[in-house]
Amino acid sequence: MKSLWDDEDAATAVARYAADGVSEDLALRTYSARLLGAEPALVLHGGGNTSVKTRATDLFGDELEVLCVKGSGWDLATIEPAGHPAVRLTPLLRLRGLKRLSDEDMVNVQRANLLDQAAPNPSVETLLHAFIPERFIDHTHACAFLAIADQPDAERLIREVFGGRVGCVPYVMPGFELARRAADAYRPGLHGLALVKHGLFTFGDTARESYERMIALVGRAEAAIASRPRVVRAVASPVHSPARVLPVLRGALGSGWILDLRNGEGAAAVANDNRLAEWAGRGVATPDHVIRTKARPLVTPPPGGDLSAWRAHVALSVEAYARDYVAYFERNRGRASQKLVMLDPAPRIVAIPGCGLAALGRSAAEAAIVGDIAESWAQSLLDAEAVGRFEPIGEAETFDMEYWSLEQAKLARRTAKRLEGRVALITGAAGVIGAATAKALASEGCEVALLDLDGARAAAIAAGISRHALSIAGDVTRAEDVDHAFDQVCRRFGGLDIVVSNAGEAITGEMAQLSEADLRRSFDINFFSHQAVAKAASACFVAQNTGGALLFNVSKQALNPGAGFGAYGLAKSALLALVRQYALELGAWGVRVNALNPDRIRSGLLTPTMISARAEARGLSEEVYMAGNLLGVEVTAEDVAQAFVFSALMEKTTGAVIPVDGGNVAAMPR
Fold it and tell me: What is the per-residue pLDDT across 159-195, written as a single tens digit (0 to 9) for each?
């Protein structure tokens, strides 16, 4: 662990924030907090907290002592000065004399003493920061430190590794009692406090001193771990690729989950070790993680040659995990003074020997957070086993944290979007209709993958949607490219729920004048590519066995051919027959197969030049030509995109052809 402090960067931060009226103390507090947040081995996703004791002016112009402490909902990696709300320090210090203080009263006191009542709730560990008299205080859940702190004889090891630099605090739930015990353990001259089975605090008179003490102490923990021999007992080796395994797992877990597979060095070492089942029952590396990961992962057998048999075994394991969770809740619910409502009993991490650690979330963002914590858990476990024995907090303490009202508040209550937990692949995604469809599906909570021959444009569109959107460069007329794309999607998200087969090309010319090569090219892109996509989609849907939606852009040409568009219309007519055939064959699997037949959409098929020529040939303005339908309105790519969303949501419709053309009698299916 190396210090990232840079005097020039620190000065730049002070100058930048000074323009907004931020004090030097708070500017440096923000700068060093972000240094901590930039290192995943120290903190992850909202973990850790930081503070500075300084002076501020109230509404009356009076200067007073305040504690600027990390606020709820802020992440150290991206924190700004507003993320350290100022709390009047004197009232907080008076609380030290109380014998007891409930969590609710603690929160009320902290909020009542905010200088800005619109600020976020101060950290649940605000009182600990207040009771320790040092100016700058940093708190992390460093992986290396936890390997030392999660030991049966943690206090002895802490003294051995850190000497007299660090005081030791036995495990206590965060809150008033922990703050009191930490204050009792503090003495001048210490560089930090080690909270057994929890985390590490450091402090100093300057931001740099506190930060670099954290780096130095974590470095000592790393050195202690590195000096111990590591025993590896890998027994599992991969039989199937993750792209084949994950959809089967996703189906066994039930619909609505996004998977994020981690199989880096640490995660793979844990997943492949013959001690995995026993390790999995030990618990989380630090109590804060339980609200994201639950107390333990689900462990599956290695995925062998017969994935259908493996799926059946996993499905039974998921049911057993849920029963065990209910029993765990019933055993411990009496520990709480208030009435508790049980959380959902599904696992959040699945350890797959020979494959890795699969993290679960209702979105890719949520799954990524769980995945990061899973990797951190694996590393802390391996390091702890090298030192001695990984032994974090027990069941009762884990339950207290998982159902602690203040910790639960970190998980914001929200209404799920209509397509949350689902994954869509869109072909021709760099085109106008494809891009609009990807954006529309994503706005409904769907994770999206964009496949197009123009990989650079697909990547740019994906980046504008979400950092989790996937872009894939590939030619849908090449079956190997299609198969590769589906593998990438399944590897990235765990499977698929919606496929929008949208790619197409309008090859024009009178039939009698067309070359055989042009006709074959039209069928390659407008028919055979859709067959390749549908075939790959079918394999994924069947592996999951949770239904799905296979949607096609057929175009009105399949029903209402136009002069000079024979090559296009013939291929689209064959595509319409293909849609009906897949609807017939996939119905038993719960897969809905439907088509849209849009008309006159400004796109790569209907170019500005073509629109101008057609309007002129009919003696119409472009506006009148584009609105030449029963409703007298122009139909846009966004309208087509919304129709695809509608089709994805229709749970009991298959084999349908939905016009998106403003009304064209000649193109009406019936």
Answer: 999 999 999 999 999 999 999 999 999 999 999 999 9
pLDDT in tens, 587-639: 999 999 999 999 999 987 788 888 898 889 889 999 999 999 999 999 999 99
pLDDT for 359: 98
**Mean pLDDT of the residues in the chain:** 94
Write out 71-123 in H/E/C secondary structure.
ECCCCCCCCCHHHCCEEEHHHHHHHHHCCCCCHHHHHHHHHHCECCCCCCCEC
Q: Range with the lowest mean pLDDT among 52-56, 527-531, 584-588, 624-628? A: 624-628
> Which pair of tokens denotes residue 165?
């630099």
Burial 330-345 (b: 16+ CB within 10 A, else e): eebeeeeeeebeeeeb
Active site residue 403: no
Question: Higher model confidence: residue 250 or residue 670?
Answer: 250
Distance CA 389, CA 399 (A): 22
* C-alpha dist (Å) from residue 207 to 7, 35, 39, 90, 255: 12, 11, 17, 22, 47
| DSSP single-letter state for residue 527 | I
Alpha helix (H) residue ranges in 390-512: 395-402, 405-408, 432-443, 455-465, 479-493
pLDDT tens sequence across 551-565 = 999 988 889 888 888
Answer for the pair 469, 463: CB distance below 8 angstroms, yes or no: yes
Closest CA to 318 of 297, 340, 334, 290: 297
pLDDT interval class at 506 (50, 70, 90): confident
Could you tell me where the DSSP H helices lie in 272-404?
A: 276-280, 290-293, 307-332, 364-387, 395-402
Helix (H, G, I), strand (E, B) or coil at 23: coil
**From its phi and psi, is residue 549 left (phi > 0), alpha (psi between -120 and 50) or beta?**
beta
Backbone region of residue 3 per phi and psi (left: phi > 0; alpha: psi in -120 to 50; beta: other values): beta
Q: What is the pTM of this model?
A: 0.92
Distance CA 438, CA 466 (A): 11
Question: How far is it, in rounded angstroms, from Cα 578 to Cα 200?
Answer: 62
Contact between 559 and 569 under an 8 Å Cβ cutoff? The reply is no
pLDDT at 667: 86
| 3-state class percentages of the chain: helix first, strand second, coil last, to nearest 5 | 50, 15, 35
How far is residue 2 CA from its own chain's centroid? 28
Question: Are the beta carbons of 528 and 477 closer than 8 angstroms?
Answer: yes
Where do the H-state alpha helices sit in 527-636?
529-544, 566-586, 608-617, 622-626
Mean pLDDT across 31-55:
95
Residue from 17, 186, 328, 568 carrying the catalytic annotation: 568
CA–CA separation, 490 vs 37, rounded Å? Answer: 31
Give residue for tokens 């004197």: 90
Tokens standing for residue 402:
């998982």
Structure tokens at 224: 């202690």
CA distances in angstroms from 43 to 77, 137, 308, 439, listed in the order given: 9, 15, 39, 32
Q: Which amino acid belongs to residue 533? A: V
**Amino acid, single-letter form, for residue 332:** N
pLDDT at 68 over 90: yes
Q: How far is CA 231 from each of CA 219, 355, 560, rounded to the nearest angstrom?
A: 22, 20, 70
Q: Is the dihedral of CA 560, 566, 572, 578 positive or negative?
A: positive
- pLDDT reported for residue 407: 62
| Cα 497 to Cα 436: distance, rounded to the nearest angstrom | 18
Contact between 287 and 397 (Cβ < 8 Å): yes
